[in-house]
Amino acid sequence: MADLMSNDMFLAFSTYATIVVLKMMFMAPLTGYFRITGKEDRKKMLQTNPDVERVRSDLNHTCHQNDLENIVPFVVIGLLYAFTGPDLSTALLHFRVFVGSRFIHTVSYLLALPQPSRGLSWVVGIITTFSMAYRVLTTTLFL
């Protein structure tokens, strides 16, 4: 364990993985905030508020759901990627681009920015994860 804590690659991965996991965790209280501050009609609950719905629109396409679908694979693949021994600067580029894309995705979702802002940020994040997965498979392919 001491070896991992002194490994720059593992520390870089841990930092960026923690940032995106915390961002994902922040989405649930954000929904609650919009409800508590009266941005959602609590009596009728038939009428929804667009601010709340941007965070929690329908079960399949919420910002939080999108985070789950993208951040969990990043954490798993990113950890495996870090163990393949890539160049630190290349790994940092992957980690930073992914984290940036998730923040841009969230901001564009919450502020209802016009497309293709949200779509492009999603594509950048998924390509980054696939790039790391490609490195993992080509480095450790054992079939």
Automatic annotation (TrEMBL):
Statement: the UniProt record of this protein carries the keyword Protease: no
Q: Which SUPFAM superfamilies match?
A: MAPEG domain-like
Task of the protein: Conjugation of reduced glutathione to a wide number of exogenous and endogenous hydrophobic electrophiles.
Highest taxon, organism lineage: Eukaryota
InterPro entries xrefs: MAPEG-like_dom_sf, Membr-assoc_MAPEG, MGST1-like
Query: What is the protein's given name?
Result: Microsomal glutathione S-transferase 1
Q: Which UniProt keywords apply?
A: Acetylation, Endoplasmic reticulum, Membrane, Mitochondrion, Mitochondrion outer membrane, Transferase, Transmembrane, Transmembrane helix
Q: Which organism is it from?
A: Cyprinus carpio
According to the record, the segments passing through the membrane are: 12-36, 74-99, 119-137
EC numbers: 2.5.1.18
Q: Where in the cell is it found?
A: Endoplasmic reticulum membrane; Mitochondrion outer membrane
Q: How does it sit in the membrane?
A: Multi-pass membrane protein
Q: Which GO terms describe its molecular function?
A: glutathione transferase activity
Could you tell me what reaction this enzyme catalyses? RX + glutathione = an S-substituted glutathione + a halide anion + H(+)
The Swiss-Prot or TrEMBL record describes its family as follows: Belongs to the MAPEG family.
- Subunit note: Homotrimer; The trimer binds only one molecule of glutathione.
Cellular component GO terms, alphabetical: endoplasmic reticulum membrane; mitochondrial outer membrane
Q: What Pfam families does UniProt report for this protein, alphabetically?
A: MAPEG (PF01124)
